[in-house]
Predict the 3D structure of the following.
Amino acid sequence: MKKDFTPERELLFLALGGSGEIGMNVNLYGCNGKWLMVDLGMTFGANEYPGTELAFADLAFIEDRRKDLLGVVLTHAHEDHIGAVPYFAEELGVPLYATPFTADLVMRKLEEAGLANSVELNIITDDDPTLRLGDFSVRYVPLAHSIAEGNALVIDTPYGRVFHTGDWKLDEDPIIGVPATEEELTAIGDDGVLALVCDSTNVFNPNPSGSEGAVYQALMDEVRRHTGRRVLVTTFASNVARLQTLGEVARETGRQLCVAGRSLDRIIEVAQDNGYLTDFPDTVDFDTAMALPRGEVLIIATGGQGEPRAALARIADNSHPIELVAGDVVLFSSRQIPGNELAIGRVQNQLAERGIVMVTDRQSPIHVSGHPGRPELEALYGWLRPELLVPVHGEMRHMQEQARVGRAAGIPSAVVQKNGDIVRLAPGKPERIAQIEAGRLVLDGDMIVPADGDSIVMRRRLAHNGVVVVSLERGGRVQVSALGLPLVEDYDQFVGEAEQDVTAAIGKLRGKAANDRAEVHEAARLAARRAAQRWSGKKPQVMVILPREA
């Protein structure tokens, strides 16, 4: 391995995102001096990055080597696999590859960003599912997932074959799409698989994830139970199979269908443009839906993860044209994504307070995961028979557990890596050989900045401790103001005492220090901070404004 990490006569794997976390998937394969990227995803902003909306893997490593990057292959259209495309594809300057449904959603993102003519997007069809990029031969293999056109990738190289699962599950009745069969996957294994790079999300589930077909019957039964009630179903907008099911449920139960959420409108349009949802019922608008008898409408709405601007949150707080009243029903046909529990709970509590009935997958089998439980993992191991297992798409606990499951199932070797670990898959013993910086970026307003940069760190401190502003005017006058301190009743007293403390601290400076702006600044800062801590128990950030120099 050269110091610049150029792959030599070897096959390397490097995750920049998605290993050690769920979401933000960005994976690199290196071979004979070149790199191939699989997926370019994002995740949503977290509490530790206040004021931000989206988070991305830091692509500095591959941006520095973009002349050696052959292309970006996209497995499917979930945001944690394609969401970063409009922010980085133009800068990377390489072709993108995707199947038709995924490509359609990606193109719409590029058009919204004004990049439709700046990024090369290639559509891979079932008629020709293989592409050649340098020493990589990549073949799309359809697998079931909670979105149309989920795919694994068979990546052939001079040093062996990689089976990169993407997100997947086994489903004998997937509703949408035709996943690869046991026989087809076994045939891939018969040709030899060096490494299985595999989704770890549901490794702790001792049961299979379940079938979309079973959800169809459960939703049908649940809607029929609530005769005469207005029923709303919230689900992931991207789950085209679930939308197909809900269209059938509406038709079979004699209900008109109403859709609430722009992302749902977009997915339905893209799905129909690509040959899915061809018999989806015509929908009615909000006013028509509200005028129908309560038992004659079925609403599909976004917001099952508690998103504050989504349709369900607005319906819950009575700020949406769709209205629910006591006795109406909300079916959560989705799972809680880790980290969203508080937001979901907030919406559910608002609904509960108004007497609205809620049903989740804990009470009725109205949702199944799109990721494999342990039996599905073990089945895939048996069909592919890889020499090496590389768990991805999970927190460290998920990946370590999958490594244990894989070894117990007979896979000879497993490498547990995390973002930034460079792993040599072949030749020789698979092992981590280096570690590079794998940081995180965030979308802050209109700018992409480091997640641990000065602005975000300062904002976090302000959020925790508030801010005090000290203004020093000519003639020695001091003015203090504060924001975010728990001093409502004591504020005026605090300000008066803080101004006295700052004046006294500056007055104690002698000699050169009395005229040194840095010394004056620090004396004022410390005095104001001590006063704030004395009054509030907080250690706020202190901004000192000095008079301009003559």
